């Protein structure tokens, strides 16, 4: 009897193993269809540039098209809300500017999603500084000259941002407070509009994302005065940091991949591994360098910890600037 039971148990165990193996062979492996990555900004900004480069690389690696879809507006909350309500199957992802995500959490009193609990963290992708720029027509090529003119001007100098409550706005307000100047905020719709206003001389200065800032500085249409990182950017080595110039301001834009809450752990793990592989590719390294960005990967837990830390910093900046977006 005992021997019969042992044979039966062995048969059942063997059958289970065979069934599992068959299931593993027949179950579709992720991905089996195109993946869409949502960007909360218009084309041309740092998030769009990096997302498109990453998407192209992931498409090659994973054997499926990766589509970049821009959903700008409302300080990225339109894009955030869309992703939060998407199916948690790994086919709708978010190239998240976590700095703006943290700003929205502090500046909006009512959101249709939970900024921290309605998303699955996948991995960080990059960190990027901003660049303080002036129009070439202004003749201002140093931070000291900008501050001197701002303090002596009978009217507040106009400065551009990529939108009310955007990181470019909060950084400028923080800078103004640190150097003791008053200025007139002129918000534009996205980084492209901000850049055009600076180039055309409609405004005197602004903090811009690196891709448009670097190309315009190299082209001679803008003057690069300083960057907000702790070290000089490799793509603009002649531009000093604000800290070098005695202004204690350091701000980095952190980008990462997230998805809706409840994504399968195996999909999260696969995506994280594919992003790390993509960032090591020579063509991706060139894109990052040209954009003034540094690659930065993480575990989902590390991503969440940094995001919550940024939320605290951005909440302080929002409060100091008196920004409300409801």
UniProtKB/TrEMBL annotation:
- Pfam families given in the database record: TctC
Signal as UniProt keyword: yes
The record's annotation in Gene3D superfamilies points to: Bordetella uptake gene, domain 1, Periplasmic binding protein-like II
Q: Which UniProt keywords apply?
A: Signal
Tell me which InterPro entries the record gives. BUG, Bug_dom1
Q: Which positions make up the signal peptide?
A: 1-24
Q: Which domain of life is it from?
A: Bacteria
Similarity-based family = Belongs to the UPF0065 (bug) family.
Supply the name of the protein: Tripartite tricarboxylate transporter substrate binding protein
């Amino acid at each position: 009897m005992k021997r019969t039971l042992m044979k039966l148990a062995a048969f059942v165990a063997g059958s289970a193993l065979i069934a599992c193996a068959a299931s593993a062979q027949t179950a579709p492996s992720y991905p089996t269809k195109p993946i869409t990555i949502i960007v909360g900004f218009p084309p041309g900004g740092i998030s769009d540039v990096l997302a498109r480069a990453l998407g192209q690389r992931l498409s090659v690696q994973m054997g499926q098209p990766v589509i970049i879809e821009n959903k700008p507006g409302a300080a990225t909350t339109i894009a955030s809300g869309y992703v939060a309500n998407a199916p948690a199957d790994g086919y709708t992802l978010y190239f998240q500017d976590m700095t703006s995500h943290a700003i929205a959490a502090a500046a909006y009193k009512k959101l249709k999603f939970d900024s921290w609990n309605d998303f699955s963290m996948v991995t960080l992708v990059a960190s990027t500084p901003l660049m303080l720029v002036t129009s070439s027509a202004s003749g201002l090529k140093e931070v000291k000259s900008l501050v001197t003119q701002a303090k002596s001007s009978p009217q507040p100098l106009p400065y551009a941002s990529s939108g009310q409550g955007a990181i470019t706005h909060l950084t400028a307000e923080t800078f103004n407070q640190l150097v003791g100047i008053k200025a007139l905020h002129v918000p534009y719709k996205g980084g492209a509009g901000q850049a055009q206003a600076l180039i055309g001389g409609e405004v005197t200065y602004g903090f811009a994302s690196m891709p448009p800032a670097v190309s315009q500085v190299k082209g001679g249409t803008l003057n690069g005065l300083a960057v907000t990182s702790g070290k000089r950017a490799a793509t603009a080595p002649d531009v000093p940091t604000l800290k070098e110039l005695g202004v204690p301001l350091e701000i980095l834009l952190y980008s990462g991949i997230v998805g809706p809450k409840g994504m399968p752990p195996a999909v999260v793990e696969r995506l994280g591994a594919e992003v790390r592989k993509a960032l090591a590719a020579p063509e991706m390294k060139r894109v990052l360098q040209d954009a003034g960005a540094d690659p930065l990967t993480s575990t989902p837990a590390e991503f969440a910890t940094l995001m919550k830390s940024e939320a605290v910093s951005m909440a302080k900046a929002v409060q100091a600037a008196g920004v409300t977006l409801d």
